[in-house]
């Protein structure tokens, strides 16, 4: 679930060891030949266990992302996250740390411009961690759907030693930002595990969106996409659900 440091080998923890159910909220890929990823709405909830491995070594330095082209349209962000200094201070007070890959992305606009979202998601960094309603840890929002359909969060364990990425249709954050979206209306059981580490999540998110753009917008497909699609075809899909 975590990366020990930039340039170091990633430590993997199985999804079933996390306090969240594993699912992948993502876009349909049936048009690219992945029958187990039908288009069931803006997003579908797909079986996490059917996901093929990401095609690059996850070392925490985002070297694979730095090698990709930049985009002027549909990128998830184009400037450093303004809330990052406040978030770093809050994490220091709590004794938890942010993954090196997370910090690299949020501090580097050119890296953000290498990640496109066909659903117009954008970087949306929380100013402080909030207590997770599930497990012993904190949630840090970092990515939001344009229409508020889904939010993605870092899950930081309370001991500061581990992290994962989770996703929810509910907003978890400071009340002064989205006071109407927090509180009794949230469903903690709906938070799902969707990434063993921030870098692993980011790589899969980037690649699947690039596959979508290649299939729907005649954009060039990354060289690693064909192998990812081939591996995905080897799996049988589980159930899907619709959101948004």
Keywords:
globular; alpha+beta; 244 residues; disordered C terminus; two-stranded antiparallel ribbon; single chain; nine-stranded mixed β-sheet; 25% helix; 7 helices
Task: Please tell me about this protein's structure.
The chain is of the alpha+beta class and 244 residues long. The protein has helices at 63-66, 84-94, 100-107, 109-112, 175-178, 198-217, 225-233, and strands spanning 2-3, 10-11, 21-26, 43-47, 122-123, 130-131, 137-144, 151-157, 163-168, 192-195, 242-243. 25% of the residues lie in helices and 19% in strands.
Parts with pLDDT < 50 across at least 5 consecutive residues: 1-13, 176-183, 237-244
Count up the helices: 7
- Average the pLDDT over all residues and give the rounded result: 87
**Roughly how many Å apart are the termini?**
28 Å
Say how many strands there are.
11
Q: Main beta sheet, described?
A: 9 strands, mixed
- What global shape is seen? globular
Please give the share of residues in helix: 10-25%
Rg, rounded, reads 17 Å
Percent strand: 15-25%
Would you list the SSEs in sequence order as H and E?
EEEEHHHHEEEEEHEHHE
Helical/strand content category:
alpha+beta
Give a brief outline of the structure:
The chain is of the alpha+beta class and 244 residues long. It has helices at 63-66, 84-94, 100-107, 109-112, 175-178, 198-217, 225-233; strands spanning 2-3, 10-11, 21-26, 43-47, 122-123, 130-131, 137-144, 151-157, 163-168, 192-195, 242-243. Strands 3, 4, 5, 6, 7, 8, 9, 10 and 11 form a 9-stranded mixed β-sheet that branches. A two-stranded antiparallel sheet has the order 1-2.
């Amino acid at each position: 679930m975590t990366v020990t440091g930039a340039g170091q080998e990633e430590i993997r923890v199985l999804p079933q060891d996390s306090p969240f159910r594993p699912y992948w909220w993502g876009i349909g890929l049936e048009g690219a030949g992945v029958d187990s990823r039908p288009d069931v709405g803006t997003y579908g909830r797909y079986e996490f266990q059917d996901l093929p491995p990401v095609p690059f070594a996850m070392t925490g330095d985002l070297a694979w992302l730095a090698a990709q082209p930049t985009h002027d349209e549909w990128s998830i962000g184009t400037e450093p996250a303004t809330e990052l200094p406040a978030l770093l201070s809050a994490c220091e007070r709590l004794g938890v740390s942010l993954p090196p890959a997370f910090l690299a992305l949020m501090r580097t606009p050119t890296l953000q411009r290498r990640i496109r979202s066909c659903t117009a998601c954008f970087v949306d960094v929380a100013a402080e961690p909030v207590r997770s309603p599930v497990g012993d840890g904190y949630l840090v929002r970092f990515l939001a759907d344009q229409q508020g359909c889904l939010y993605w969060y870092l899950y930081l364990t309370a001991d500061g030693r581990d992290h994962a990425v989770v996703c929810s249709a509910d907003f978890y954050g400071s009340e002064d930002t989205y006071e109407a979206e927090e509180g009794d209306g949230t469903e903690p059981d709906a938070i799902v595990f969707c990434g063993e580490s921030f870098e692993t999540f980011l790589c899969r998110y980037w690649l699947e969106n690039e596959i979508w753009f290649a299939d729907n917008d005649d954009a060039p497909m990354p060289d690693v996409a064909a192998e990812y699609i081939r591996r995905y075809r080897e799996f049988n899909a589980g159930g899907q659900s619709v959101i948004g």
